Structure formats: structure tokens, C-alpha cells
Amino acid sequence: MTKTIAQIWKGTLDPARYSGADQPAVRELADCLEQDAEELAKELTEEAKEQFRCYCDRMNDYIALINEQAFCDGFCLGAKIVTEALTAPVQPE
């Protein structure tokens, strides 16, 4: 099941249609991060810029992995909730 969930997340099975990128708060934060990175890059030496680029690349990879795992965990939790709802005996009131 984990492979299928990963395929859903990566979009190879069925694209994840919602990323939150259209939310104003998410867009504002992304813009601030981009602006801060540009300002920092102006102050860095070429060697430091390369280190900063490597750091950003690794952070992006890390964030992607964490997001994929969170997606998988959430999906599994949802499946457990649905299973319990469908298999639990009905309690009379």
C-alpha cells in the first residue's frame, strides 16, 4: 500500500490536486522566503553562494521527503478511521 500512496503523492498514479500554493498566506510566505534568499545572496561571496545553493537544494529535498511521508501517514490514518467506521458494531442508543 505504501508504494501506491507514494505514486499518488508523486502524481504517477493520480496527481495530488491540492498543494495550498493558491492560498494567500502560503503565497505570501513563499514570496518572503524568495526575497530573503535574494537579499542574502547579494551579500555572499561566490564560495558562500555555492554553499547556500547546496543548502537550499538539500532543504528542498528534505522538505519534499517530509511532505511525502506526511501525506502517506495522513492517508493511512484516514484509511484506519474509515475501516473502524465501517467495521465497528453499531451501538444502540
Structure description:
The chain has one domain (20-87). It has 3 helices and no strands. It is mainly alpha-helical and 93 residues long. The chain has helices at 2-10, 24-43, 46-87.
Notable characteristics:
single chain; 93 residues; mainly alpha; 3 helices
In short:
By secondary structure, the chain is mainly alpha-helical.
Helix % is over 70%
Fraction in beta strands: under 5%
**Gyration radius, in Å:** 20 Å
Helix-strand pattern, N to C? HHH
- Sequence stretches where pLDDT stays below 50 over 5 or more residues: none
Task: Give the rounded overall mean pLDDT.
Answer: 84
**Class computed from helices, strands and strand pairing:** mainly alpha
Number of domains: 1
Number of helices: 3
Measured distance between first and last alpha carbons: 36 Å
The biggest beta sheet, please?
A: none
Topology:
Elements: H1 2-10, H2 24-43, H3 46-87
Helix pairs in contact: 1-3
